[in-house]
Amino acid sequence: MIPFKLKTGFESQPLWQSLLMVLIFNTLIAVLIKSLIPGSSFYNQLLISQSIGLSIFLTLIVSASFFKNKTWRILIPLILGVPIGLLVIVTIQAILSDRNFDQVLKLLKENYTDLLSLLFSGLFFGAIVLVFFANRERLFREKTKLQTEKINNLDHQKTIAETNLRLLQAQIEPHFLFNTLSNVISLIEKDPSKSKNLLESLTDFLRASLKRSADTDKILRNEIVLISHYLDIMKIRIGKRLESNIYFQDDVIDCIFPPLLLQPLVENAIIHGIEPLSEGGTIDISISKNNHRLVITVSDTGKGLTTENTKGFGLTNIRDRIRSLYGESGRLLIEENQPCGVMATIEIPYEST
């Protein structure tokens, strides 16, 4: 036998809270009617409002278990709840006045204005109760739907960001790895010592890269270590045409920082800024904290602003990831460096570990 499960139709709060609200609501209606009709009995108004209001409320709960159609869920409580409420009123009055049920009903028939007043009051109270709860449940469902859509949207953005990250990593590492290995091979006979240094630097870089992949906290210090090894490799490949400096405070770099935001900026500065110039140039990386914001600047004295170092795939990916991770709280700014070159600045909220 399949057990019957009562569906109350109230999702916004527990049943007992809804019942308490109905009792309070009915009492307020009685107070309102008493203030509008000073000569009426507050006791009678309270009896009417509570009897009809509770009857409609209970009928609403029962109808929610049997009817899926929202129209019937509202009509049934009005059709059945008001007569049940009137029946309760007549029964209570019969008990309190020491009359039997037929006598009270006969009095109501003789004084049909009282009966019409009760029916009008019942419909009035019922409509107020139903409109109140229907609107509250509708607002709750809309709010829940909106929150669900926001969560799904955030999950979708997170998936896109992770996919872009994997694409960027797949683009950077093989390209860089093959070029470096090619340099190692070409230097084996020409300059074995330099070839050995390059291979050692590459080993350190790959070790740091693996550590970053396993780093669940995503610490900025690990990114700096990786960038240092990367610059060591590029200095061997490019030679004296490349100089670099990294400025930071120890307490600043021990913070949370997403991977592969900094490395593409350094790559851009070298590939599109320093490498095309015969005289080369200098890359300065500055890391600071300003008003609870982490500010990282990569500046070079290279070729200057070009399409490649302002609208490339790597920079587009960085902007998209910053937007998905921090919204309007993060940004990437690309501008001219003085007296020459490009200055790229990342600003995101500072998050300590």
Radius of gyration: 37 Å
**Which structural category do the helix and sheet elements fall into?**
alpha+beta
Order of helices and strands: HHHHHHHEHHEEHHEE
Task: Report the count of strand segments.
Answer: 5
Please indicate the percent range of residues in DSSP E strands (runs of 2 or more): 5-15%
Q: CATH homologous superfamily of the largest domain, by name?
A: Histidine kinase-like ATPase, C-terminal domain
Please outline the major beta sheet.
Answer: 5 strands, mixed
Total of DSSP H or I helical runs spanning 4+ residues: 11
CATH class of the largest domain: Alpha Beta
Tally of distinct domains:
2
Q: For the record, give the distance between the C-alpha atoms at the N and C termini, rounded to a whole number.
A: 56 Å
Point out poorly predicted stretches: 1-8
Oligomeric state of shown chains: single chain
Explain the layout of strands and helices.
Layout (H helix, E strand, L loop, with lengths): L14 H22 L5 H25 L3 H27 L4 H10 L1 H79 L1 H23 L5 H19 L3 E6 L2 H4 L9 H12 L6 E9 L3 E8 L7 H4 L1 H14 L4 E6 L5 E8 L4
Parallel strand pairs: 1-2
Antiparallel strand pairs: 2-3, 3-5, 4-5
